[in-house]
Amino acid sequence: MRGAVKGRQFDRLGWLKVGGVPIFKTSTPEPSADGIQWSVERDVTAYASLLRSPQDVQMYLGNTVDSTYTGVLDVTVDLTFYGTSAVWPKATTAERVQPLADEVGGAGDTHGTLTVAPNTERLVADVYATGSGGGCEEFWYTAAPTTSDDPDYWCRTADGPWRELQVYVDGRLAGIATPYPHIYTGGWSNPYLWYVLPAPRAFDITPVQLDLTPFVGTMTDGRAHRVSIKVRGADGGGWDVPAAFRSWQDEGSTRVTGSVRTVEESAPSVTNTVGRDGTYFTADLDGSHSLTTSGQVHTSRGTVTTTVVRSVGERTHHFWSDGETTDGQSTSMSDQGFVRTAVGPGVPTFQRFRYGYRLDGRIDIDDAGDLTTKISLADTGSDESKQGPSRGAWHTWDHRYAGEATWSTTVPRDQRRATGTSSHDFTDRSANGCWHGVIATRNGAVTQETGSTRC
After folding, report:
1. Could you point out which of 180, 275, 279, 324 has its C-alpha 20 to 30 Å from the C-alpha of 39?
2. How many CA atoms, within 13 angstroms, populate the side-chain half-sphere of residue 413?
3. Are 200 and 424 in contact (CB under 8 A)?
């Protein structure tokens, strides 16, 4: 996707759907008067089955153009197809990809129906979850609990900053996950942080994956089954949660049967502690929740038992002054677990994952009206598969952003004297090799851009 915009405009959210299925979600830069251009690349191989026949294509990019907001977005999207060879074999992907049917709701509580093929043996949901709309839920990770000592704080919700993505199948909790704390290019009161170097995932909003396979055995009867997607902790909406459902079929049978064996969850623990620390109001969150689901399907290869274990957690220390001339926080989020699959008494396969998100930031407005934002972000994780002692595919990543920017709040836009620095240090490793890159900027210019396969 390539885009261009100039003038004055907010950051905007958009999505691309093929055959009604979301395959890409993005946000946009906030431009200068001279304009800005950007591009995004995304691997959509996981949705290859959609591209084998003609499909309707929709792209949505919400925008407002008037005498104040003058930026008109010019966007082009294309698909590149690659051939296969002995060196680059065909990718193994889901045989079927579909959206929810009869979808209604939104704002963090969406439901619809899903009808899977009778011989389906695996099911995964890709949920493109984003808080949006410029209100409290766009910056949900900065929310204070309604019990805080400052009744005038701009964003207060019952659970403070606790948000948990949940998927239900026929009314039963089937999956949980931590949503990613996206920061768009107008975020943290300082678009000057993001003019050249956006926050991680701002332009390529990666879907949250939830393995729903333990419930497949109850869904292969040819009927439409109710699926609900909720964001726990969201008060009054403000979330967009489109989802793609990928499924794999047992080619050796026309119908598989099965059952859900286990649905066990810990009691959700969300503790908000509020108070005062000298001149600051404070709010501390300690939250956790875990879920285990297990189910069986009887296939042509034998009985397949799938167990999914997942736990999510968050800790936040938040402080702010009266009038919010200072507002800062330190937040860490975790999302980890495994999927265990076994055919009969055979050696099980484990797919382990561990995701961690870290956000440390502070906004200060001094007596002269200068606003300074300092922020650091970390997006780390690992995925690996293992069967017995044999290690399969694996991938680890460590992406870190740091930035500081200042601008004057007391003068017109063209006189704000904005200054800032930022850097993004990213490392990716897998069985195929590694990549380490650094991009750094100062006052709107790139000062470093390096990359190496030496990690």
Report:
1. 180
2. 10
3. yes
pLDDT at 107: 55
DSSP structure class, residue 125 = E
Task: Provide the β-strand partners of residue 411.
Answer: none
Q: How many other C-beta atoms lie within 10 A of the C-beta of residue 409?
A: 12
Buried b (16+ CB within 10 A) or exposed e, 298-310: bbeeeebbbbbbb
In which band, very low, low, confident or very high, does the pLDDT at 106 lie, cut at 50, 70 and 90? low
Taking Cα atoms as reference points, which of 354, 350, 112 lies closest to residue 245?
112
Burial class (CB in 10 A: 0-12, 13-18, 19+), 329: buried
Q: What are phi and psi of 235, to 5 degrees?
A: -100, 120
Query: How far is the C-alpha of 308 from the C-alpha of 1, rounded, in Å?
Result: 35
| Tens digits of residue pLDDT in 222-242 | 999 999 999 999 977 789 999
Give me the mean pLDDT over the 158-181 stretch: 97
SS3 label, residue 374: strand
Say how far apart CA 97 and CA 47 lie, in whole Å.
7
Tally of CA atoms within 13 A in the half-sphere of 89 that contains its CB: 3
| Region of residue 129 (left: phi > 0; alpha: psi -120 to 50; beta: else) | beta
Contact yes or no for 379/357 (Cβ under 8 A)? yes
On whether the CB atoms of residues 146 and 157 are closer than 8 A, the answer is: yes
- For 19-33, write each residue's pLDDT tens digit: 999 999 999 999 988
For residue 432, the model assigns a pLDDT of 87
Identify the pLDDT of residue 388: 85
Nearest to 206 by CA among 51, 52, 23, 33: 23
pLDDT at 390: 87
Pairwise CA distance, residues 253 & 257, whole Å = 10
